[in-house]
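W.,

You were right to be curious about this one. When I first looked at the sequence I had no strong expectations either way, so I just let the prediction run and decided to look at it fresh. Below is the sequence, 467 residues in total, followed by the output.
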Amino acid sequence: MRLFPAFFFTDDKHATVFGGGEEARRKVRLLDKTSITITVIVDDEIESGFAEEFAGRIVIAPREMAGQALDRSLFAIIACRNEQNTDQSVEWARQFGIPINVVDRPELCDFTVPSIMERGEIVAAVGSGGAAPVLAKRVRTDLEALTPPALGPLSRIARDFRPAVSAALADGADRRQFWESGLHGEAAALALAGKTDEAVAALQRLLAKFTADDRSLGRVDIVGAGPGDPELLTLKAFRLIQNADIVFYDRLVSPGILDLIRRDADRVSVGKEKSRHTMPQEDIHQQMIVAASAGKRVVRLKGGDPFIFGRGGEELQALNSAGIEAAVTPGISAALGCAAAAGLPLTHRDHAQSVTLVTGHAKTGGMPDMNWQALAAPNQTVVVFMGVGTAKQIAKSMVEAGRAADTPVAIIENGTCQTETRSFATLATLPETIDRNNIIGPALLIIGEVSAIPAAISNQRVMESAQ
């Protein structure tokens, strides 16, 4: 590691910026976000609007005053517009022994100015040592996307509340547990929703419970993991996974998403396969209740969306009945994610004016009792979850109800993952296609004229390349 990151406290401190052009102006904009006192040593002239932009915030001085400014400065930034002034400024700063940053001259720098993300009291800095500033900015942009803007108010609430916590909880371990609960629980959720006063009240209630030695403070978040690709997680889902103390996860959650779980968090597989349940549903409920009652932050991680054939509704009811705080974070349904990845529109003005989501697996096993007449209606797309094992009966029932035997069907296995496969058939050839391609699931069946669109596009490309 060539760079050692450090943060300077800026209260009652001074910094000197050399230059009067745009580069100097940009550096002053960064410093302006701090509490540091800024002296700008100008070149022969200062850029129009520079002084006005920072009126009352900067002191502008001629080069003859550089020594006085440097003598009290914590560091200096040199952004002169000509080489002679740059060299002279570097020499002056060296005489006073303070760290310097020289714009576009990394060989002269003692430190670099990183790409900065600021959320109130939380500051993140990404540097590359001048090797790849654009890449550093990209990483910062990714951090900004993952970090809610409201984290700033939450950090200020924590700052202002810290003296009360220190006074009420003498033990360091107790204080640490309080902040773990407070900054990831109800108070955090309220602050991130912009409800500052309610967040403070939630922290006060939490502190009262801690002083009364009531630690039954956990909660459960039922989180949709999406169809498999980690980049299709919602930002909130990612944050909850990262904050969890224990994660109960399904078989359909991809390894790439499981890798996002904290290393020190407990992981419990509760996945289900056809005719093989590793843990009965009632036991899953009970384990979540026990973990939350022990004060843990629990995530129930489910493939796709928890409320679309994910049994999320049953789990939410069980938690609510037990008096456990619980919330649901939606995920991109496999129907949407897999279809989009395959270039398959579930609705289309020429082919499908509605879409119906059904399950191919009944609660007690075998075929579900469905309204086949309704599913066989024209101009609609039918998406079947967990339908590989019952595909033969589904195809037969739809044809008998009036859907054409040559209706296109797309079979998408492990959708959006690196192991994804796509097969195309018709209702008549669906069972044969599944057997021939050894499709065992998890897979979606997408039935309707829209399923011919990706194949038509592919065929068109083949024809064009042959011409």
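Here's what jumped out at me. The domain at 14-113 is CATH 3.40.50.720 (Rossmann fold). And, maybe more interesting for your project: The chain has four domains: 14-113, 151-211, 219-332, 336-459.

Coffee later to discuss?

I.
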